[in-house]
Amino acid sequence: MPTLILARHAKAEAPAAGLSDSARALELIGRKASTLLGQVIARAGISPDLALVSPSLRTQQTWKLMAPAFGECETVTDDELYETHVSGLLEVLHGLGDAETVVVVGHEPTSSAAAAHLAGPGSDKTALQRVAHGLPTATAAVLEFDCPWSEITSRCGRLVSVLSGRDVEE
């Protein structure tokens, strides 16, 4: 059964003159939250075998800090994830082949919009309410599917949980 983890990057530095959006780095609190998010996902019994990561600095840093919580995990930087939308993310998912559990480390509003779009019957009501308000930084939506990646479409998955790494001290 394919499992998808839609993780939003952790808290990054604010936009600034002369700093491109893609070059924004994580703040200290974001680094701590990234590490904790990986640990929270692992404690939930979920271990990705493939990570698809947006090329932005903050998503790359988020994944690098999450990854030690898991065993072997192939990592692919996917340029399509930087400024994509739900349909663009679905195109990426449709090409996943045999991967069992995939984490996508990306951005808002795509992460929460995709979780809401894919969540169908049997989804956890509390998790649905959380994604309806958007995914906060260092938070992940977990969806399960009864079909292969190539057949994923609107409302075909179950949103089973929303996990957070935000419970860290400044």
List keywords for this structure.
170 residues; 6-stranded mixed β-sheet; 5 helices; globular
SSE blueprint and pairings:
Blueprint: E1 3-8, H1 28-43, E2 50-53, H2 57-66, E3 74-77, H3 86-94, E4 101-106, H4 110-118, H5 125-132, E5 139-145, E6 157-164
Parallel strand pairs: 1-4, 2-3, 2-4
Antiparallel strand pairs: 1-5, 5-6
Describe this structure in words.
The chain has 170 residues and is of the alpha/beta class. It has five helices and six strands. The protein has a six-stranded mixed beta sheet, sandwiched between helices. Helix 1 packs across helix 2. It is globular, with a radius of gyration of 15 Å.
Q: Helix/strand-derived class?
A: alpha/beta
Q: Classify the helix fraction into a percent range.
A: 25-40%
What is the H-and-E element order? EHEHEHEHHEE
Q: Mean pLDDT, rounded to whole units?
A: 95
Tell me the span between the first and last alpha carbons. 38 Å
Rg, alpha carbons: 15 Å
Total number of strands:
6
Biggest beta sheet attributes: 6 strands, mixed
Beta-strand content = 15-25%
Overall geometry comes to globular
List the strand order in the largest sheet: 3-2-4-1-5-6
- Sequence stretches where pLDDT stays below 50 over 5 or more residues: none
The total of helices stands at 5
Quick summary:
The protein is of the alpha/beta class and 170 residues long. Helices cover 31% and strands 21% of the residues.
